Amino acid sequence: MVYSPVTNGLVRLMASTMTDTPTKISRRVPQWAAIVAVGLALMLTGARSQVESFRKSSPAPAVAARVVKHAPAAVIASAPVVAHETLVAPAVSISVNSELLRDVPTASADVAVATVGVPTAAKQPRVIWMQVTAYCACKKCCGPGAKGLTASGHHISYNGGHFVAADTKVFAFGTKLLIPGYAGGNAVEVVDRGGAIKGNHIDLFMPTHQQAVAWGNKWMQVTVAD
Q1: How many structural domains is the chain composed of?
Q2: What confidence tens digit (pLDDT) does each residue in 128-163 have?
Q3: Residues 6+ apart with CB under 8 A from 199
Q4: What beta strand segments (E) does the chain contain?
Q5: Containing domain of residue 139, as a range?
Q6: Within a domain: residue 111?
Q7: CATH assignment of the domain containing 134
Q8: What would the mean pLDDT of 62-68 be, rounded to a whole number?
Q9: How far is CA 215 from its chain centroid?
Q10: How far is it, in rounded angstroms, from Cα 94 to Cα 97?
């Protein structure tokens, strides 16, 4: 055994020390120090020899160089690799749709480009206070030369007999008016005029003279539809 001499010396020294006087014990201190130093040296020497023998029995694996395409030389030299390792890139099958290879059709030059107009504010209808009377196609209302035609050339049956005579300086022919209580609330056109119809005065056509008289003479709010 490697450490038996040191062990035996320590045992003897301890046995003798137990029977020594304090003076003798103080004299043996150098002996203790020498024995401990020798023991530590022997222990370190034995440990080193065991490490060396372990290294020799277990050699390190060999390192092989691996070639990496497109990598810098400094990176290849410094990268640790395992021996006999081979990297194979998996084959990738890429299918190309033939439709994607066709040219994208461009808009024809003669295609009309739609323009977006800026919306304008809705036109507010005009409401006017007017004198509203009524007439019919009789000779009393239209005179002895009445022929059943309006001044614009429409027959009195136009629009079911619902139309208006007005001063064309105020309302031109074709102007649509909304008169409360007439034509079921629907807009009617100005298609006639009369010598007594001036300014803010309109005359509603009635099928009979009795209906015209029944309407009378009214002041009311008339709405100009267009």
Answers
A1: 2
A2: 999 999 999 998 998 888 889 999 999 999 999 999
A3: 167, 170
A4: 126-135, 164-166, 176-178, 188-192, 201-205, 218-224
A5: 126-224
A6: no
A7: 2.40.40.10
A8: 45
A9: 64
A10: 10
